[in-house]
Specification:
Blueprint (H helix, E strand, L loop, with lengths): L3 H16 L4 E9 L3 H6 L2 H17 L8 E6 L2 E8 L2 H17 L1 E4 L2 E4 L2 E8 L7 H17 L5 E5 L17 H4 L1 H8 L1
Parallel strand pairs: 6-7
Antiparallel strand pairs: 1-3, 1-6, 2-3, 4-5
């Protein structure tokens, strides 16, 4: 995966493309739930192995899609930028990465781990004219919302101004059931 310096350079290009109205931009942030337990139970070499394996899973599984940009954000946190026509595609990628982690077993030496992860998704529409850091801040806020709500889940918001990052209201939050209602109706028909 990209390092943060490389990610930031490419991310600014994606933001510019979004500002020019070519497409919207989604950001996914996630971290591994209770990752410290791996380092404490096994050792830091096993922890480093798991972090690298998450990167390999994302890079080589095909779940990210064309044009997506992924990087390790720090520690056991990852970030994915997804240029897209709509938030659905971004949420689907977050769902696929989440599922990929849930289905994986990480084995090193005599240790074997199954993991969960908490995700935050943020979206801006084409023509976004706000601060590029606000999109990262919004995804991070949603990641911590997932943690507060019990971990091992995805929460998201649509970044529109004005927004109070200290008190995000329902107008900004993404309702997954509403987002995928048309697909559910087709399935039930």
């Amino acid at each position: 995966l990209s390092n943060m310096r490389s990610f930031n350079i490419e991310y600014q290009k994606l933001i510019k493309n979004c500002r020019d109205g070519n497409n919207g931009l989604g950001l996914i942030m996630f971290d591994l739930d209770r990752f410290k337990n791996i380092n404490d139970t096994a050792n830091h070499l096993v922890g480093s192995f798991v972090i690298a394996e998450i990167g390999h899973l994302m890079r080589f599984s095909g779940v990210l899609g064309e044009g997506s940009l992924a990087a390790r954000y720090g520690g056991d946190e990852y970030i994915i930028a997804v240029p897209a026509e709509g938030i659905k595609k971004v949420w689907q990628i977050a769902d696929k990465v989440h599922d990929l982690i849930l289905r994986s077993v990480f084995k090193k030496e005599q240790f074997s781990f199954k993991l969960t992860a908490s995700f935050g998704v943020a979206w801006v529409d084409p023509g976004f004219d706000g601060k590029s850091d606000d999109l990262i801040r919004a995804a991070d806020l949603m990641l911590y919302r997932s943690k507060r709500m019990g971990r091992n889940q995805i929460n998201g918001l649509v970044l529109r101004y004005p927004i109070d990052f200290e008190d995000v209201g329902k107008a900004h939050l993404i309702d997954k059931d509403e987002l995928f209602a048309d697909e559910k109706q087709k399935k039930n028909a």
